[in-house]
Amino acid sequence: MNYRKANNDEHNIICEQVRSRSVLTVCLSAPVIPVVVLVACLSVNMMIRQRYDKATFVISTLMMVFFVVAVAIAMIALMSGFIKRFSCINKRNYSVADCVVAGKNLRINPKHNHSFVTVSLPDGNTQTAMVSQKVYSLAQNGKQALLIKYDEPDGKEKLPFEIAVL
């Protein structure tokens, strides 16, 4: 499959779209989980307070505080890893396929098994390329995806391709 080096404008647009949408989604959804857990714990704690003695209430309160803190720490770790991954995408050296939109320029080739797709190039030619199951699923569902091939320092490629969903 033919690849070309993404120029600076494409590189910046792609990285910014991937970063902003992914990070925004995580940042908006991640804090909701500890809040929901906290509300659930408080409601259970109130039921325990009404039915049991003070010692049981104190123990259950400490356990619930520990649980909420653990969930919050897990969510912070998840968010930081996610943000780190997407913020460093633009620091890597990669090439982007001429055709990037699944469902538009990317078509499933029914003659091959699931890991092959037929790609329409801008010049009107088509080429068959091996891609991952995830890209194939995205293409089947008509979702937009970038086919990204990373250029490794030692010259080896990651196979088959990595994708960034827009």
**How would you name the oligomeric state of the polypeptide chains in this document?**
single chain
Return Rg in Å.
23 Å
Count of structural domains:
2
Kindly, what is the distance between the CA atoms of the first and last residues, rounded to a whole number of angstroms? 22 Å
> What is the number of strand segments?
7
Number of helical elements: 4
Question: Main β-sheet, in a few words?
Answer: 4 strands, antiparallel
- Pick out the low-confidence regions: 1-7, 86-116, 142-166
Strand content: 15-25%
Estimated helix fraction: 40-55%
Structural class: alpha+beta
User: How confident overall, as mean pLDDT?
Assistant: 55
Return the string of H and E elements: EHHHEEEEHEE
Shape: elongated
Biggest sheet, spatial arrangement of strands: 1-2-6-7
Folded structure, characterized:
This protein has helices spanning 8-29, 32-51, 54-87, 133-140, and strands at residues 3-5, 94-97, 106-108, 116-120, 126-130, 145-150, 162-165. Helix 1 packs antiparallel against helix 3 (54-87) and helix 2 (32-51) runs antiparallel to helix 3 (54-87). The chain has 2 domains: 9-90; 92-165. The chain is of the alpha+beta class. The longest helix has 34 residues, at 54-87.
